[in-house]
């Protein structure tokens, strides 16, 4: 079917919840913050959890409900800390905003006497910048509240974390994600069968933002009738047949077959980091691979993932994984001896 004309607006923004109570699958967070909104007494906040679970959405919704559209631009400053993460930003932009006194509120909204500074991806900030924030938080706590958003709470220094109320955002369950996707399909007039819906949930791994973006990409390319195959083609995941072919070649014990599979994978342009992630799930869930073999393979996958992060060559690293997987599946010694 030919692609249909679609709005240029991103669906992630179009269907972003506008109120805290509309955030999906974060009942404890929603309940606590709803009570906070009623009193207008907002502490410093630290939102952490996997991507696409509603952290930024919740922070923005709180600010909109506190200040309304008129005061939002003057009372709220949102910074992406992965872009502006140095100590100079803390000393200039953040300190300047935090130090400005607030004016009168508007009717119809709580409008508490403070501003809100949202630091998205705060775990990307340098340690020096985080340390510099400590004094800023203390000096301007009467007129400014800080909201830190991160994926890894362990990367936030303890002096900052201890000054905040912490809220953990959980990965979305499959049924929660499917309900939201079905709602979007209904609003946009799309046809998505159950297989395609399950595939979309599986490839998104609890990340609703990724699921919505993937769905919109599929609609732009293939039209309003979306199949499971089309979801896979736009999602960036590697087809199961590729992983099965690689494991089958390794199980054969023939290096030439494994070498050819690796060359084919590289030639097709599949990202090796994605191969490792899916291969891990494939191996762990396989009933035909013993626990010892799984342990040997997953250990090598972890080492290879670190090498790729450090900038190693994808082809050589995938060959290393294939060679070690072959040794494990054929019960050979872990390393070659000379």
UniProtKB/TrEMBL annotation:
Gene3D superfamilies in alphabetical order: 1.10.8.60, 1.20.272.10, P-loop containing nucleotide triphosphate hydrolases
Keyword Aminoacyl-tRNA synthetase: no
Gene Ontology molecular function, alphabetical: ATP binding; ATP hydrolysis activity; DNA binding
Listed GO biological process terms: DNA repair; DNA-templated DNA replication
Record's keyword annotation contains rRNA processing: no
Domain AAA+ ATPase stretches: 41-173
InterPro entries: AAA+_ATPase (IPR003593), ATPase_AAA_core (IPR003959), DNA_pol3_clamp-load_cplx_C (IPR008921), DNA_Rep/Repair_Clamp_Loader (IPR050238), P-loop_NTPase (IPR027417), Rep_factorC_C (IPR013748), RFC_lid (IPR047854)
Keywords tagged on the record: ATP-binding, DNA replication, Nucleotide-binding, Nucleus
The organism's place on the tree of life at top rank: Eukaryota
GO CC terms in record: DNA replication factor C complex; nucleus
Cell compartment(s), UniProt: Nucleus
PANTHER family: REPLICATION FACTOR C / DNA POLYMERASE III GAMMA-TAU SUBUNIT, REPLICATION FACTOR C SUBUNIT 4
Complexes and interactors: Heterotetramer of subunits RFC2, RFC3, RFC4 and RFC5 that can form a complex with RFC1.
Family stated for the protein in its record: Belongs to the activator 1 small subunits family.
Function description: May be involved in DNA replication and thus regulate cell proliferation.
Protein name (Swiss-Prot/TrEMBL): AAA+ ATPase domain-containing protein
Organism, as annotated: Physcomitrium patens
Organism placement in taxonomy: Eukaryota, Viridiplantae, Streptophyta, Embryophyta, Bryophyta
Gene encoding the protein: LOC112279378
